[in-house]
Amino acid sequence: MGTTYPTKPNLDLLNERKAFDETKAGVKGLVDAGINNIPSFFRHQPDKYQKSNNTNHAVPVIDLVDIIDNKQDPSAHQGTVDRIKEACETWGFFQVVNHGIPLSVLEELKDGVKSFYEMDAEVKKGLYTRDQGKSFIYNSNFDIYSSPALNWRDTFMCYLAPDTPNPQDFPIVCRDILLEYGKHMMNLGTLLFELLSEALGLNPNHLKEMNCAEGLIALCHYYPPCPQPELTVGTTKHSDNDFLTVLLQDHIGGLQVLYQDKWIDIKPVPGALIVNVGDLLQLITNDRFKSVEHRVLANRVGPRISVACFFSTGVRSSSKLYGPIKELLSEDNPPKYREITVAEYVAYFNAKGLDGTSALTHYRI
Questions:
Q1: Span 232-261, pLDDT tens digits
Q2: Is 235 buried (19+), middle (13-18) or exposed (0-12) by CB count in 10 A?
Q3: What structural domains and CATH numbers belong to the chain?
Q4: For the chain, what is the radius of gyration of the CA atoms?
Q5: So where does this one cross the membrane (predicted)?
Q6: Do 52 and 263 form a contact (C-beta atoms < 8 A)?
């Protein structure tokens, strides 16, 4: 028997969701049809956390210029590592600038993702699928049949590593830029895992040798304008089911991080990428680095485009077990989690859906 979750929708609601799913047109299809009232299954319960009015609270912005340019300045390098350490221990989030990925690549990626969603609706329907075995998966709400309420967004997901994708699996409008961005992202991810290893007091190659940077999955989101944004959300409160996420967001904003029980806006910084600790990194660091909950608000303006790159092998099978890193443990700091495989964690996370609770608690000792 699988685990049951009390918040799952009843049969009538499931039928409504099934009808929406079978249109294969996503949330964009609703907007294109000119709806003024959002369907009931997109309506969320009010969130208990307030938005922070403290303008002093902002996610740290970390400049990687000295690291990227390889200036060999030990004090500058250590300063960057210290800032990353503090960000991962307190916020679980930071933004990076001068990260080495050209601005033109970031702009071309946002344009490519937007072009996919604005393709002819019939062509796009042919790509709509819930088959987890595919390299390119386009649909609306991965947890459509399990979450308490749906999110106001459509998504396509593609695997970029460790296996080199077959270009034919990707739509031509965004094929080349996705493959190019994947190469840039693997380079940046390798660098970030080196800095994170140092921030933990470990050898720079430690996390890389644990294969934390082995898999790369791109989640390309399209948040259409919403006629009733106060009734729904773009993405429910959640933490990420990976080791590390590197997010490109456009100028519209709406991403918020939960910090000291208040929602803090992560304001778009031109050319910056947002980095956040995932659940698996919190698990292997034994809670030293925090995988923090975040959400995306719905908005009357749009579409909002974002691309989240997940460092994870996802549901693709691997027998490698991950538990708290031995070098970080002591008598005073025993392991807080049992060992699991990445695929097991992701499968549990996906089955649970974005229900506002953390999947990590399931694996606590």
A1: 999 999 999 999 999 999 999 999 999 999
A2: buried
A3: 11-43+60-363 (2.60.120.330)
A4: 20
A5: none
A6: yes
